[in-house]
Structures are given as structure tokens and as C-alpha cells.
């Protein structure tokens, strides 16, 4: 069964309006936005909230990008077009002890394939609202 695009979403459990966006705005500067400067900053900001951002039943992605774009005056879709680790999405380092328990070095990588899907969806929604 497909997802209804007009389906009501739950409120985001993360208060993105109160977060500090300095990590992004201090490193990702125009007019030439580069993946080397923008993507590490974006991941440092977004990865702690990866579970909430991957939950398509809430409005976290829309809320987060709204505040990122507002605070940094970025164009819609900038991070979706720049930031990809591989075709499965962004890779966030493991932070919880249970995620790295099987790794002897503690540096296990957790892949989040839904992040690319979420970013692409946000870009599509923004473009559709322009028309």
C-alpha cells in the first residue's frame, strides 16, 4: 500500500526551533556551496536526530529544513543535492553504546538509507509548492 501524500503527520518530537545552527551556518557559506564544507556540518547537526528524521510519520524533516534554510538563507534542496555518501543515503557514525557494542574499535558505521529518501521527498515537496 502506498503512502498518501496528504496524510496528516505527527508533530516532530525534536524542538528544531530551539537548536543552534551555527555548525552549519559557520561552515556552509556561499556563494559557492561545496559538499566538502556543507555536508560534514550538515551531518554533524542532523545525525544526532537520525531516528526522528527517518520516521516518515512525523514532520521532522520539513521542520528541520525550514529552520536550516531560514537561519542560513540557503536555497531549498541545497543539502539534498550536495550531500550523499552513497546511493543508500547518508552515513551517520554510531553514537549509542548498543550500536557499537559489536565493534571492537567502537567505530561502527550505521547506514541510514531513508535519509536520502527523506531529503529527496523534501526537495520534491518544496518544488511542488512553488508551482
Can you tell me the overall shape?
Answer: globular
Mean pLDDT: 77
Structural class: mainly alpha
**What does the largest sheet look like?**
2 strands, antiparallel
Distance linking N and C termini: 27 Å
Can you walk me through this structure?
This protein is mainly alpha-helical and 131 residues long. It has one domain (16-130). The protein is 44% helix and 6% strand. It is built from six helices and two strands. It has a two-stranded antiparallel ribbon with strand order 1-2. The longest helix has 18 residues, at 113-130. The radius of gyration is 15 Å and the shape is globular. It starts with 21 loop residues before the first helix and ends with a helix. Residues 14-90 form the GPI-anchored protein LLG1-like domain.
Brief write-up:
This protein is mainly alpha-helical and 131 residues long. It has helices at residues 22-25, 35-46, 50-54, 60-72, 78-82, 113-130, and strands spanning 90-93, 109-112.
Provide key terms for this protein.
131 residues; mainly alpha; single chain; 6% strand
SSE topology sketch:
Layout: H1 22-25, H2 35-46, H3 50-54, H4 60-72, H5 78-82, E1 90-93, E2 109-112, H6 113-130
Antiparallel strand pairs: 1-2
Amino acid at each position: 500500500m502506498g503512502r498518501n501524500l496528504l496524510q496528516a503527520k505527527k508533530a516532530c518530537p525534536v524542538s528544531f526551533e530551539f537548536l543552534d545552527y551555527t555548525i552549519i551556518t559557520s561552515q556552509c557559506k556561499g556563494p559557492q556551496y561545496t559538499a566538502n564544507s556543507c555536508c560534514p556540518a550538515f551531518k554533524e547537526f542532523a545525525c544526532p536526530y537520525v531516528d526522528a528524521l527517518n520516521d516518515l510519520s512525523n514532520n521532522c524533516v520539513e521542520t528541520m529544513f525550514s529552520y536550516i534554510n531560514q537561519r542560513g538563507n540557503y536555497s531549498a534542496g541545497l543539502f539534498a543535492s550536495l550531500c550523499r555518501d552513497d546511493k543508500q543515503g547518508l552515513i551517520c557514525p554510531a553514537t549509542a553504546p548498543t550500536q557499537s557494542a559489536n565493534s571492537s574499535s567502537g567505530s561502527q558505521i550505521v547506514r541510514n538509507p531513508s535519509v536520502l529518501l527523506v531529503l529527496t521527498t523534501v526537495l520534491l515537496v518544496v518544488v511542488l509548492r512553488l508551482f
